[in-house]
Design brief:
With 221 residues, the chain is an alpha/beta fold. The chain has 8 helices and 14 strands. The strands form 4 sheets. Strands 2-1-3-6-7 form a 5-stranded parallel β-sheet, with helices on both faces. Strands 8-9-10-11 form a 4-stranded antiparallel β-sheet, covered by helices on one side. A 3-stranded antiparallel β-sheet has the order 12-14-13. α2 runs parallel beside α3.
Length: 221
Amino acid sequence: MKFLLIEDNLDLAAAVASRLNIDGHVIDHADKIEDGIAFCDTSDYDLILLDIMLPDGDGRSFLQHHRSRKRDTPVIVLTARSQVSDRISLLDLGADDYMTKPFDHAELEARVRAVLRRKNGSAQAVIAFGEVSFDPVAGQMYVKGAPVKLRNRELRLFELFINAPNQIFSKQKLCDRLFSFDEDVSENAIEVYVGRIRKHLDGCDVTISTHRGLGYRLESA
């Protein structure tokens, strides 16, 4: 999945991004509110991790702006403020969760998974479609009940498809969701990843179909 991290502490930002990258997530990093807004205006994110004390203002202003635009992207606030009143105000402004600094990275990962499950409208971890299923917590794909090992990019690509079966994704859209702004990639990379996933789906009732000029779609026979 693709996350936006708005944090001006570069060491903390690097540590958080590195930890989430291990799970195959793509992280865009902004160290100012202004840059965070610009990122959201040009890309779609599955989750935002938001610091409160930023060089150009209070992270609350970003949260207010984001919600005023009717964007429902989940937001986890990273804050050094531990007062109950501060936490209540953040939740009232539209935050989905918060972490008090310093925090344990394993707990942050767990909260990320929980928020994303709530966003999907279900507490169920496993997503099923035809003879294929996906466990986002374990990062595991199954075909006819048998586990299939995918590389990180392939795993996140398949996660996009199975979270929106029967929806057509353009190559450009998939590139935007799989790679950060810092990465220089070609749309041909998407063809390679789709081809690898198709090999694992061979023999089951689920396939990734090509719609010329439009993109790809996960569908079941």
